[in-house]
């Protein structure tokens, strides 16, 4: 079965979204490691990580000295 032009565009978009999700997961793991290194308990790190992920790159810079 041959893919139509629209189907190939959908597949390409899905591939891009998958790559972006992998990048975000990697950044989340990095933030968790930074929080643990700064002594934030495992009980609180998920809330802090979620706030950072949803915040601007500038907020991350203020907290950690670099953008996430």
Outline the secondary-structure elements.
Blueprint: H1 5-37, H2 42-54, H3 57-64
Helix pairs in contact: 1-2
In a nutshell, what does this entry contain?
The chain has 68 residues and is an all-alpha fold.
Oligomer: single chain
Question: What percent of residues adopt helix (DSSP H or I)?
Answer: over 70%
The secondary-structure class comes to mainly alpha
Percentage beta strand: under 5%
Distance between the termini: 43 Å
Largest sheet, in brief, is: none
Helix-strand pattern, N to C? HHH
Apparent shape: elongated
**Low confidence ranges:** none
Question: Which value, in Å, is the CA radius of gyration?
Answer: 17 Å
Overall number of domains: 1
Could you characterize what this model shows?
By secondary structure, this protein is mainly α. The protein has one domain. Helices cover 79% and strands 0% of the residues. It is built from three helices and no strands. The chain has helices at residues 5-37, 42-54, 57-64. The mean pLDDT is 76.
Features:
68 residues, single chain, 0% strand, mainly alpha
């Amino acid at each position: 079965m041959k893919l139509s032009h629209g189907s190939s565009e959908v597949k390409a978009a899905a591939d891009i979204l998958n790559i972006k999700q992998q990048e975000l997961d990697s950044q989340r793991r990095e933030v968790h490691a930074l929080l643990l290194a700064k002594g934030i308990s495992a009980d609180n790190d998920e809330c802090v990580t979620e706030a950072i992920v949803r915040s601007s790159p500038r907020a991350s810079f203020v907290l950690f000295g670099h953008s996430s």
